[in-house]
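subagent[fold] <- orchestrator: predict structure for attached chain, return C-alpha cells only, no commentary.
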Amino acid sequence: MPTAYCFKCRQKREIKDPKQVTLKNGRSALQGTCPVCGTKLFRIRACHRITKLVKTFGSWIIKGLESVGRSYEAGHLPRLWG
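subagent[fold] -> orchestrator:
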C-alpha cells in the first residue's frame, strides 16, 4: 500500500482507497484518505518523470548512473544533473 504524510495526525499513513490522478503539468499522483482521521492524502509520484527521461534519452543514462555507483532510482537523477 502506498503511504503519504497526514498533516492532521502528523504521521505517515497508508492511503485508503488510492486513486491515480494526473496533474496539470502531466505528472501522476495518488489521492486518497487517511484511514485514521479521514483527511485527504496526496502523494506526487516521481517515477513517471525518470521513466520518461530514460525513454527519451536512452540507456546511456543508466550506464552513467552505474559508472558513479548509483542505481536507477527516483532520487538519483536530480543529484547528478541538479
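orchestrator: received. Logging for downstream: Residues 78-82 have pLDDT under 50 and may be disordered. Residues 47-57 form the longest helix (11 residues).
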